[in-house]
Amino acid sequence: LAKTTQPISMDSYEGQEVNITCSHNNIATNDYITWYQQFPSQGPRFIIQGYKTKVTNEVASLFIPADRKSSTLSLPRVSLSDTAVYYCLVVFSSGSARQLTFGSGTQLTVLP
Amino acid sequence: ETGVTQSPTHLIKTRGQQVTLRCSSQSGHNTVSWYQQALGQGPQFIFQYYREEENGRGNFPPRFSGLQFPNYSSELNVNALELDDSALYLCASSPAVSSYEQYFGPGTRLTVT
Questions:
Q1: Which of A13, A33, A70, B72 is 20 to 30 A from B56 via CA?
Q2: How many of the other CB atoms lie within 10 Å of CB of B105?
Q3: Which chain B residues touch A55 with a CB distance below 8 Å?
Q4: Residue A27: its chain B contacts at CB < 8 A?
Q5: Residue-wise pLDDT tens digits, B63-102
Q6: For chains A and B, what is the number of CB pairs under 8 angstroms?
Q7: Contact check, Cβ <8 Å, B106/A44
Q8: In this structure, are residues B32 and B91 in contact, taking their beta carbons and an 8 Å threshold?
Q9: A1: pLDDT strictly greater than 70
Q10: Is the Cα torsion angle B63, B52, B7, A40 positive or negative in sign?
């Protein structure tokens, strides 16, 4: 059964590092794992994507273990403006059928 | 560079009617995906189009159908609307079918009464 699991919510203080994990069994072996940020009344915004090990860009890092059954988004030194819902996006495939699947989302609240 | 645009912004329809939603992809992007997002939930994948062909589909009934045009713009058609179809419909484009670096439009809010 194609399923992703994320914590429903997390609180953090400004300046702290935040790690959000998404569990995803049996994802397609040849597709990226991607993370998005969504503010109310807006479409999701791309943060980062990776295939394996560690990827870093100017706003986040993504850690993916060798078995690819989970991924962890790391946000360094969060600020109030990082308060948003964060989603992982993975691909489940069955034969030639591909399903892009968003996680249930994690509401991150950054406190002053 | 123009981002992803969607029309209309809001729409109210009656149960049983049909609706067409439109999406213009970002310049240079050949892949378009459509998602349904109910209030308080994550986006649910409807389908993806790559070079005018359907390239993947989520668990949505056949009354959800789509098209992609030679300029890579796209339409989502929903027939026989049901109350549960009320949601935000998001379109996203990406520069390659192998990339999930998608750029989302602002969405179309559909209300079915």
A1: A70
A2: 23
A3: none
A4: none
A5: 999 999 999 999 999 999 999 999 999 999 998 877 788 9
A6: 60
A7: no
A8: yes
A9: no
A10: positive
